[in-house]
Design goal:
CATH class: Alpha Beta
Strand content: 15-25%
CATH architecture: 3-Layer(aba) Sandwich
CATH topology: Rossmann fold
Distance between the termini: 30 Å
CATH superfamily: NAD(P)-binding Rossmann-like Domain
Structural class: alpha/beta
Length: 246
């Protein structure tokens, strides 16, 4: 991927129908990649992204409904994507949920749901695409972590744990698969303006951002773009946070 083109490549974007995932889907499509948009529930939003990709960038795109926490369902979906597109070259693990609450009162189900989607979901997808990547001697995996996984965040022990786990997963996968020509990196966004962060507008941590503002989804998509083309970068955690975690 030394040239700035992804023509003929296929990218899977989990959580690809809105927010950061939507921005990433459009960014990679703009370089000629075919896009498999994974969504959890909003079929209309996913289909709108697919339509926009096909109409504006003239590449192939298709939406797939999937609960990434389901190991067998991930296997079936990856197989279907390979059948539809021929093969897979890029995986962006962006699917994530929050179930915020103070630790002393957090329900077990809320802890499990966040870990199962945010961390196990990434494992599930990597597990099922890795065989194709190894066969191709080529692959790029990008896990969307968070500065919450670096700094911690009060009221988000489950979310912070899942995102810290993603960083460890990223580094282990990078070491394990590098000899096969496969790269694995993580991005740790800070406060990014999305539907998920609407309830963070009054968070006092916002005042600690050195650049003085929240980020936007394109800021993260540009970091994904960099890592997709950065052929000598693996095992890294790229913070996109306005400097809050420096």
């Amino acid at each position: 991927m030394n040239e700035k083109t992804l023509t003929g490549k296929t990218a899977i974007i989990t959580g690809g129908s809105r927010g950061i995932g939507k921005a990433v889907s459009l960014k990679l499509a703009s370089y000629g990649a075919n896009i498999a948009v994974i969504y959890a529930g909003n079929e209309e939003a996913a289909n709108e992204v697919v339509k926009k990709i096909i109409n504006e960038y003239k590449v192939e795109a298709k939406a797939y409904r999937l609960d990434v926490s389901d190991f067998n369902a991930c296997k079936e979906t990856v197989t279907q994507i390979k059948n539809d597109f021929g093969t897979i070259h890029i995986l962006v693990n962006n699917a994530g949920i929050t179930r915020d609450g103070l630790l002393a009162m957090m329900k077990e189900n809320d802890y499990d749901a966040v870990l199962n989607t945010n961390l196990k979901g990434a494992f599930n997808m990597i597990r099922h695409v890795s065989g194709t990547f190894i066969k191709n001697r080529e692959g790029c995996i990008i896990n969307i972590s968070s500065v919450a996984g670096i700094l911690g965040n009060p009221g988000q022990s489950n979310y912070s744990a899942s995102k810290a786990g993603l960083i460890g997963l990223t580094k282990s996968v990078a070491r394990e698969l590098a000899p096969k020509g496969i790269r694995c990196n993580a991005i740790a966004p800070g406060f990014i303006a999305t539907a998920m962060t609407e309830n963070q507008i009054e968070n006092p941590l916002l005042e600690r951002i050195p650049l003085g503002r929240m980020g936007n989804t394109d800021d993260v998509a540009e970091a994904v773009e960099y890592l997709v083309f950065a052929s000598y970068v693996t095992g890294e955690v790229l913070k996109v946070d306005g400097g809050i975690a420096m």
